[in-house]
Write a structure and sequence with these properties.
The chain is mainly α. The longest helix has 26 residues. A hairpin with a 2-residue loop joins strand 1 and strand 2. The protein contains 10 helices and 2 strands, in the order H-H-H-H-H-H-H-H-E-E-H-H. It starts with 10 loop residues before the first helix and ends with a helix. Strands 1-2 form a two-stranded antiparallel sheet.
Length: 248
C-alpha cells in the first residue's frame, strides 16, 4: 500500500508564501498603515527567503550563474526599492533585500572553502566570517542590516533536519529578531494578562512552513523562476503608483 505523505510544502510553495507575506508588509507600508496585522504577517517573509536562498545555493547546477542572477535582480530592484522606501529614484541610505541574500550567499561560499581548514583554524575563520558579515550588513545599509546576513548564515550552519538544527534556528532567529532588531511592541491579552510582544518576533513563525518543506521543488518551469524574481521590483513599482494615485 502507498504510504500517505505528511503535510509538506514544495520550494515553489514556499516562494509563493513568502511573496504573499512580503506583499502584506508592503501593503501596510504604502497603502494601509492602520492595518498592523499586515506588517505582523510580513515579518515572517524574510527568514523564508533566507532559507530558500541557502537551499538554492546547494541545489543549483551553476553557482556562478545563480549568484549573477541575484546580482542582476538586485540592480534591477534598487530603483523600485528606493522609490518605495525613500520616495526618490536614488536613496543611498538603504538597499533592497536581494543584496542581503547575495552577501549572505557569498559568505556561505567562503565558509564552504573554510571547511577544508583544520578544526581549530576552521572555527576561528568561521567566527571571523560571521563578524565580517554582521559588520558588512550595517556598513552597506542593506535590508535587515547585519541581522539579515546572519539569518542567511543561520540556515547554513543549521541545515540538518533534526531537533538540534531546529533549536539552533529557533535560538538564532530569536536573538536576531527579538534581541537585536527589536522594534515595535504590541500589547496582547493572554489568559487575562497583558503581555508585550515584539512585532519582529513574528519572524520565528517562519520555521513552521520551513519545517513542512521536504526538499521537493514543485513547479520547475523557467517562467515561474523568473516570475518570482520579477515580482519583487514589479510589485513595488505598482504600489508606488497606486500610492501616488491615492494621494492625488
Amino acid at each position: 500500500m502507498e504510504q500517505k505523505r505528511t503535510a509538506e510544502l514544495t520550494s515553489a510553495g514556499l516562494h509563493l508564501l513568502a511573496m504573499g507575506l512580503m506583499l502584506c508588509d508592503h501593503l501596510w507600508a504604502m497603502l494601509f498603515p492602520a492595518a498592523q496585522w499586515l506588517t505582523w504577517l510580513g515579518r515572517i517573509a524574510f527568514p523564508i527567503f533566507a532559507f530558500m536562498a541557502v537551499e538554492g545555493y546547494f541545489h543549483t547546477r551553476n553557482l556562478r550563474r545563480y549568484l549573477l542572477r541575484l546580482l542582476v535582480w538586485a540592480l534591477l530592484s534598487e530603483i523600485p526599492f528606493d522609490l518605495m522606501y525613500g520616495g526618490s529614484m536614488f536613496y543611498p541610505y538603504h538597499q533592497n533585500v536581494i543584496w542581503t541574500l547575495l552577501l549572505g550567499l557569498l559568505l556561505v561560499a567562503l565558509l564552504e572553502k573554510i571547511r577544508e581548514f583544520r578544526p581549530l583554524l576552521r572555527w576561528m575563520a568561521s567566527a571571523g566570517v560571521v563578524v565580517l558579515g554582521f559588520c558588512l550588513g550595517y556598513a552597506a545599509m542593506i535590508d535587515y542590516y547585519g541581522a539579515g546576513v546572519l539569518t542567511v548564515l543561520t540556515f547554513y550552519f543549521f541545515r540538518q533536519r533534526n531537533w538540534k538544527s531546529f533549536l539552533g534556528q529557533l535560538l538564532c532567529l530569536y536573538i536576531l529578531n527579538v534581541e537585536l532588531l527589536g522594534g515595535y511592541y504590541t500589547v496582547v491579552t493572554v489568559l487575562g494578562h497583558e503581555v508585550e510582544v515584539v512585532q519582529q518576533g513574528m519572524a520565528l513563525l517562519a520555521l513552521l512552513p520551513i519545517w513542512l518543506y521536504r526538499g521537493r521543488q514543485g513547479c520547475r518551469k523557467t517562467w515561474f523562476q523568473y516570475a518570482c524574481y520579477a515580482f519583487y521590483p514589479l510589485h513595488m513599482l505598482i504600489l508606488v503608483q497606486i500610492q501616488r494615485w491615492m494621494l492625488g
